[in-house]
Amino acid sequence: MDPDARLQLAERFAVIADAAGARVMAVYGTAEATAKIDGSPVTEADLVAHATILEGLARDCPGIPVVSEEDAAHRTPDPHEAFILVDPLDGTREFISRNGEFTVNIALIEAGCPVAGVVLAPALDRMWIGAAGAGARMRAAGEAAWRTIGCRHPAGDGVVCVASRSHRDADTEAFLAAQAVSGLRSVGSSLKFCLVAEGEADIYPRFGPTMEWDTAAGQAVLEAAGGRVLCPDGTPFRYGKPGWRNGPFIGWGAAPR
Q: Where in the cell is it found (predicted)?
């Protein structure tokens, strides 16, 4: 798929994410959590967003396989096939705590790489889209039009890091201790990728466990904005792994000047 086609697909994802976000906000503050088999929380918002997104993708993207967090147990990855990864509500804990740091995520995977994606933070009224070869954009509350975004070059006094609000571990702390850190922000969900993509931060390290749907859309936005997501050894961070489980990664913005 060429860059223009990827961007058009990301724009379609944005319309679908907006519809899902509206349904999420309709139950924000009232949806109660239950536990999945693995013990992770799920709410009515996860389920209504899942249904809305799958309906929209079936209408607008027929023929492209879809894997959502809410039905992934029934699907096996084919690394040679393009597919769409969906996290209907990333940051369920943030949704439950009502801090606004939760997102709706949709991404296209080609040859193991996220090449088009959208991240919507409905409670913050902010959306980011990105497409490989076509750049990244965002739209914030009160803005009628998209504006182009890009990763920044770190300032001379060090880097600003973003890290998980809910999942900090010893490996993350050790990584941060080895950097020249001038600032640290703790943020939930895939918002961390977006802060690096729009130049509000420089590095997002994650050593704790994640699933592919947690990261695909954010990675698509970050890399379209000029950043990279790599394994700690510097190799590319790929998708279509058995069980959909990620290893550790580091999201990098622009290289220092």
A: Cell inner membrane
- Is 69 annotated to bind a ligand? Reply is yes
CATH 3.40.190.80 for domain 159-252: yes
Rounded CA gap, 20 and 83, in Å?
Answer: 20
Structure tokens at 193: 């990728």
Instruction: Say what the pTM is.
Output: 0.94
Packing angle of the helix pair 44-60, 3-26 (nearest 10 deg): 150
**Domain parsing of the chain, residue ranges:** 3-149, 159-252
89 known member of a binding site = yes
For 201-242, the pLDDT digits (tens) are 999 999 988 999 999 999 999 999 999 999 999 999 999 998
Task: Tell me, yes or no, if the two domains 3-149 and 159-252 fold the same way.
Answer: no
Query: Coil, helix or strand for 215?
Result: helix
Listed in sequence order, the residues at least 6 apart from 110 whose beta carbon sits closer than 8 Å to its beta carbon are 1, 82
What residues contact residue 204 under an 8 Å CB cut-off, 6+ apart?
A: 161, 162, 163, 192, 193, 195, 196, 222, 250, 251
**Confidence label for 37 from pLDDT (cuts 50, 70 and 90):** low
90 is in an annotated binding site: yes
User: Which fold does the domain 3-149 belong to in CATH?
Assistant: Fructose-1,6-Bisphosphatase; Chain A, domain 1 (3.30.540)
Q: What percent of the chain has pLDDT over 70?
A: 91
**Residues contacting residue 182 through CB under 8 Å, at least 6 positions apart:** 155, 157, 158, 159, 160
* CA–CA separation, 255 and 79 (whole Å): 30
Q: Left if phi > 0, otherwise alpha if psi is -120 to 50, otherwise beta: which for 29?
A: left
> Across the strands, what pairs with 186?
163
